[in-house]
Amino acid sequence: MADLTREELRALQQKSLEMAVYFRDFCKENDLLCYFCGGCCIGALRHQGFIPWDDDADFFMPREDYERMLRLWPKKAGSRYVLVNAGPEMTDRNLFATIRDRETTVIKPYQQDLDICHGLAMDILPLDGYPDSAFRRKKQVFWALLYSLFRAQTIPEKHGGLMAFGSKVLLGAVRSKKLRYKIWRMAERHMTRYKIADCTGITELCSGPGYMRNRYPKELFASAVYKEFEGELMPLPVGYDQYLRIVFGDYMQLPPPEKQAAHHDAVFYDLETGYEAYREKYYCVK
Questions:
Q1: pTM for this one?
Q2: Cα–Cα distance for residue pair 65/35, rounded to 1 Å
Q3: Residues 144, 281: Cα–Cα separation, whole Å
Q4: 109-113, long-range: CB < 8 A, 24+ apart
Q5: Looking at 204-270, which runs of residues are DSSP E strands?
Q6: pLDDT, averaged in runs of 10, over the chain (286 residues)
Q7: Residue 120 three-state SS
Q8: Among 44, 136, 217, 261, which residue's Cβ finds the most Cβ atoms within 10 Å?
């Protein structure tokens, strides 16, 4: 997140930690498998806490646990942390569900025109089976790309010109909100048809085109192990070392100074005031 002082970044990390601990405990209570991914996974092993310049927490969940969590959260979670997940009447331009702290306000650039809960967000990313057949795998990637486009409903900014052009054509041809929803739900059903139990590998279909091509041996995510993280014991995939080496290489080596920066940004943030206080100002909602 740009232009934060060290103290402000630390306060952001503390709020993220509170949310992560609540999510960990919710999953324990409801027999759901979850584990840190990405930066927090590295942070637990290299720093025993947040990477000093990191600004959020993210979790992986196997698809079946993820879907159960989506059903259970509205019924069993408290009121502070809100589940935000795209549906027929709303898109948040994410490919996965987020848990948001309604007692804070953090507005991302790509969401600033949306009337959603703009609390500090924690990404919850599902893991899916990676089919052993090369042909089925190609079909899965096709459906995952279609899902990504029609769920996010935005033109990819960081990918090739051909992908951006094709995305623009498809979104231009399908303008109906209802039809877009039907397409991404159909694509989601096709891409998730390969159950982890029936495959030897696992993949990320909701983390973007680059990550959806990764294949991990499924035993790396068969269970969680707990490592110290900011004075808490937080879950990591049991095969965390191999997972991290597949994605990041030598993850215990610090990156060069110019890359020691947060990868997220915001147009506005306030960790002391809930998002409702800004709703009327930003969206003219009374």
A1: 0.91
A2: 11
A3: 37
A4: 109/265, 109/266, 109/267, 110/154, 112/267, 112/268, 112/282
A5: 216-217, 224-229, 232-237, 268-270
A6: 78 96 98 96 97 92 98 95 93 94 91 89 97 96 92 66 58 71 94 97 93 95 98 98 96 89 80 79 51
A7: strand
A8: 44
